[in-house]
Amino acid sequence: MKQEETNDKSRRDFLKTAAVATVAATACGSLACSCGSKKHEHAASGEKVKLLSPDGQMVEIDSSELRGHHHASIVSSAEARSGIPGRKFVMVIDLARCKNARKCVSACQKMHHLPVEKEWLSIKLMKDNEQSAPYWFPKTCFHCDNPPCVKVCPVNATFKRQDGLVLIDNERCIGCKFCMAACPYSTRVFNWEEPKEDLDLRDMVATPETSVPSKVGTVEKCDFCPDMVRQGLLPDCVTACPNGVFYFGDENEDTVTNGDETVSFTQLIKDRSGYRYMEELGTKPRVYYLPPKDRMFPVERGYDALPEDLKGRFKDVMEEGKK
Amino acid sequence: MELNSFQQKAFEHQRPTIEKFGRKSWMWTIFFLVWIILGGYALYLQVAEGHIVTGMRDNVVWGLYIANFIFFIGISYAGAVISGILHILNVEWRKPIIRIAEMITVIATIIGPVFILLCVGRFDRLHHLILYPRLQSPITWDVLAISTYFTGSVIFLYLALIKDFAIYRDANLNIPKWRKKIYKALAIGYRGTPSQKKHISVSMNLMAIIIIPLAIIVHSVLSWIFGMTLRPGWHSTIFGPYFVLAAIYSGTGVLIMAMWVYRRMYKLYDYINDKHFIYLGYIMLVLAAGYGYFTFSEYLTDWFGSEKWNSEVIHKLFSFSEYGWWFLFANVAGIVLPIFIVAFPKTRKPGWIAIASFFMVIALWVKRYLIIVPTLESPLLPMQDTRLEYVKYSPTWVEWALTFAGIATFFLFFTLMSKFVTIIPISEFADKEKAKEKVAEKVINPESKVIPA
């Protein structure tokens, strides 16, 4: 018994040291990244953690000092405004595959540290006419090429970049909400109250590419995860979807991928008759939709298993669909 | 400053109002201050807890505050247009009421933009509008237009006040020394010399000519904040002229109400007589007809067409389970009632006209609300939200408190102004006897260089 306990203890110690060394490396890395930002006061948890500093010193700090590492590449505000040269990001959403699994919604909320009520990516249940069947419609920001939101911003807080993305500088935003009134796709959300403090974002450097931490009284929206894209990663909604609904890629390279399949963008739009939502508004969205033909799942799959409050959203459309 | 007999009479009658700050004035001041303090508490809550304390949410992002903003900038047209146009046309009967009109303009142009500031999420970043302005944005046009218009209106009001300040300065009023000093400073050495008279006259003519296109620009720009979006009920080509006309119309209504109140309060029956109400009533009738025509054209066109994006808003406005009663009120009290009251001789009297104006002004506020909220409640994409406060806008006590605080501030400014300057401009009273002589001389000798006043 005692031998086992000792073995357990030494195994635990070893794992602890190994884990702590990894955490130390990342903690020190993010410490370097957030140099010059405000230091926040936080309650000491009392639990001490041993860390190995880069120059081989063993230091012991309170565990409340450790920060979760938000994978972000930090660029200057000027670079964040100008964008990644030579790229033209585009998204294709396959409506034939969507079953309202909502993994994209939760992944986006997790990635950007959003509360459950705030949806940058929302899923609507659309029914085009009385005869057609309803279908699930994931809606991101369309990052329009002729954005009505950018047109009306009085302080240049929202802007269009050379790589096609429309971002928001939440240090500049005065919260007039003109962009929200102007967006015909209801894609923008507003911080009506002080966002709950997220410890992982405490020392985050805010640039328009990170979009977080959220600031009260400013506007936010889906940003196509530019900080991840800069590192060559796909936005979280694309990778989180179990059915490969989201294709993300570069119009210049004529490639889009959903994590599994990589296809030619123009070919996909041609073959599957891709369209843009409310094309006639002339906003030139960068998100294309593939029509819900030859569906992978019946629409009820995405409705029956929902919790009651979410079901309430789509009840009217589903009842109409059953008629 | 030498006063002729008419001016003397007008001054003696109004002297007590600027000399005394009696119990009644204190009562009104305290009454308004109570509302303002309540509004102050509401503002504190809004700043401390964020706009979550209002009823606005992600769909209806603009509510009571923006309605108030448009309303106040609208009523500011009393001075800008009525006073301005009547000045250019050199209409004699305007003289007793120009000060009230210009006061409405200046005070409303102060209070209106305050409501925008209340609606903005980041009070503390307003300087961004000056540091990082984007000229392509209708809000920037609005900032430029309103600040120019405000400056112009203040100048216009002040120019008309200079002569009166000189009269107060010289009149040996029974007031504390600091007030005498202020009058002296504001009179900027006006002595009534012919060259000074000419300067003021030329400046006022210039300002009157400038103010009118400025006023048209201001409300057009304001209307384009809505008109330039892609929303049903907003993306209308006639919004510019529609808003300008509604503004002049509501301004006339507030002018009539202010005339009626001041006339009663300070016993100004000799100066603001029935004729003023009737003439302004005629102006109100014509404007009501024009405004009614624009309203009819707008809603008939929207209703007749079949596009889904318009029909949802029209349905909200016409259906009595939604905004139908408010829409009916806004159009009956706002268009039909004033027209009928002024049209029939039996009701073409100050009391009736003032009542019609009162309901008309309220109806026009309701109309502004009906322009903003039903459209925002009808986005192009289905809302599909179970949170009721996100689906239907219902203003909270914070928003109402700040609305009434704004109205109270408006009235408070008026109360204080009427204690500082006389409501009827003394200096405007030309010497009628001398004027008759000059006219007579002109009749006998057309070559005479005498200009009748």
Tell me, rounded to a whole number, the average pLDDT of chain A. Answer: 84
* Greatest interface and its participating residue counts: A-B, 46 and 44 residues
List low-confidence stretches of chain B: none
Q: What is the 3D form of chain B?
A: globular
List descriptors.
heterodimer; A: 323 residues; alpha+beta; Alpha-Beta Plaits; 5-stranded mixed beta sheet; two-stranded antiparallel ribbon; 13 strands; 28% helix; B: 453 residues; mainly alpha; Formate dehydrogenase/DMSO reductase fold; 0% strand; globular
Topology diagram in text:
The complex is a heterodimer of chains A (323) and B (453).
Chain A: H1 2-33, E1 48-52, E2 58-62, H2 77-82, E3 89-94, H3 103-111, E4 122-126, E5 135-139, H4 148-152, E6 158-160, E7 166-168, H5 178-182, E8 189-190, E9 219-220, H6 226-230, H7 236-240, E10 246-250, E11 255-257, E12 262-264, H8 265-271, E13 287-290, H9 308-322
Parallel strand pairs in A: 3-13
Antiparallel strand pairs in A: 1-2, 3-10, 4-5, 6-7, 8-9, 10-11, 11-12
Chain B: H1 5-19, H2 23-49, H3 64-75, H4 77-88, H5 98-119, H6 128-131, H7 138-170, H8 177-186, H9 194-227, H10 239-265, H11 274-304, H12 308-318, H13 324-343, H14 350-376, H15 388-391, H16 397-420, H17 432-444
Structural write-up:
The complex is a heterodimer of chains A (323) and B (453). The longest helix of chain A has 32 residues, at 2-33. Chain A contains nine helices and 13 strands. Helices cover 28% and strands 16% of the residues of chain A. Chain A is of the alpha+beta class. Chain A folds into two domains: 2-65, no CATH class; 77-290, Alpha-Beta Plaits, CATH 3.30.70. Chain B has 17 helices and no strands. Chain B has helices at 5-19, 23-49, 64-75, 77-88, 98-119, 128-131, 138-170, 177-186, 194-227, 239-265, 274-304, 308-318, 324-343, 350-376, 388-391, 397-420, 432-444. In chain B, helix 3 packs antiparallel against helix 14 (350-376). Chain B has a single domain, classed as Formate dehydrogenase/DMSO reductase fold (Up-down Bundle), CATH 1.20.1630.10. The radius of gyration of chain B is 24 Å and the shape is globular. Helices cover 72% and strands 0% of the residues of chain B.
